[in-house]
Amino acid sequence: MPVVSKSNGLLAEFAVFPSEPDIQAKLVEQAIQNIEAVLKHNAGFASGTVLRSRDGLRVTSYAQWTNQESYVATQPFIDSTVPDVHVFEIFAEEPDGSRLHLSSRMDGLINFGIFKMKQPENQPRFIELFREALVMVSGQAGLISTHAHRSLDGWRCINFGHWRSLEEYTAMDTNRPFSPLFGEMLDLANNEYQKTLHEVVFTT
After folding, report:
1. What gap in Å lies between CA 58 and CA 55, rounded to an integer?
2. Rounded to an integer, what distance in angstroms lies between the CA atom of residue 146 and that of residue 34?
3. Is 160 within 8 Å of 4 (Cβ atoms)?
4. How many CA atoms lie within 13 A of 41 on its CB side?
5. Are 16 and 62 in contact (CB under 8 A)?
6. In a 10 Å sphere around its CB, with 0-12 CB exposed, 13-18 middle and 19+ buried, how is residue 178 labelled?
7. Distances (CA, A) of 117 to 28, 38, 107
8. Euclidean distance between CA atoms 66 and 44, whole angstroms
9. Cis bond leading into 76, ω under 30°?
10. For helices 179-188 and 123-137, angle between their N-to-C axes, nearest 10 degrees
11. Considering only CA atoms, which of 96, 68, 92, 55 is closest in space to residue 12?
């Protein structure tokens, strides 16, 4: 079972595929096939997870690797947009020491907060603000855990949040506790905002 945790020391790749509801199932199968037929046979592969957004507009492959040298990028799929792929490490988590066990039978839903730096040199300051924002959102009703990832190339930060329900996530989102920081964060990065939550459909 894949585990998302700062303490495991693994690197990760997010491969995010834009979708439409009528082709989401096809993209899910292609993402699973890519993990099963290609990625998992490489030395250094630790785990693979595929998630689908509940609105049908995104499929995300999350692959964990033991080291950067072994990393093999997810390949583009036929008739799909080339995924935006980067190698990430976890730099913060709330609660501290939390471990997110990924399974298609798990309770709750996943939210991805995806931020694209306007310049890679913005990432260190963005991370400082991101850490403050995580502390502010920790303890919100419905939040089980959250794990913040930064891409090693400096271009991305992605938050991997685990929520009990869409209703509780929406309640937080309409009254964001980190609003005082958000303006400066958006000066540094573009926010690929998507309110929908995601379901785990495959793990290995």
Report:
1. 8
2. 27
3. yes
4. 5
5. no
6. middle
7. 28, 30, 32
8. 5
9. no
10. 160
11. 68
Interval 43-93: pLDDT, tens: 999 999 999 999 999 999 999 999 999 888 887 777 777 778 899 999 999
H helices within the chain, ranges in order?
24-37, 123-137, 166-173, 179-188
In the prediction, which pLDDT does 192 show? 83
CA distances to 5, 55, 139, 140 from 126, rounded to whole Å, are: 21, 29, 22, 22
Residues of the chain with pLDDT under 70: none
How long, in residues, is the chain? 204
SS3 call for 71: coil
pLDDT on residue 58: 92
* Cβ 6 vs Cβ 92: under 8 Å: yes
| pTM attached to this predicted model | 0.93
Q: Which of these, 37, 32, 42, 160, lies nearest to 101 by C-alpha position? A: 160
**Residue in the structure block whose two tokens are 């040298």:** 69
- Write out the H or E segment, with its range, that includes residue 23: none
Strands (E) located in 34-179: 45-53, 58-65, 84-94, 100-101, 109-117, 143-151, 156-163
Q: What is the pLDDT of residue 101?
A: 97
Can you read off the two tokens belonging to residue 129?
A: 């603000």
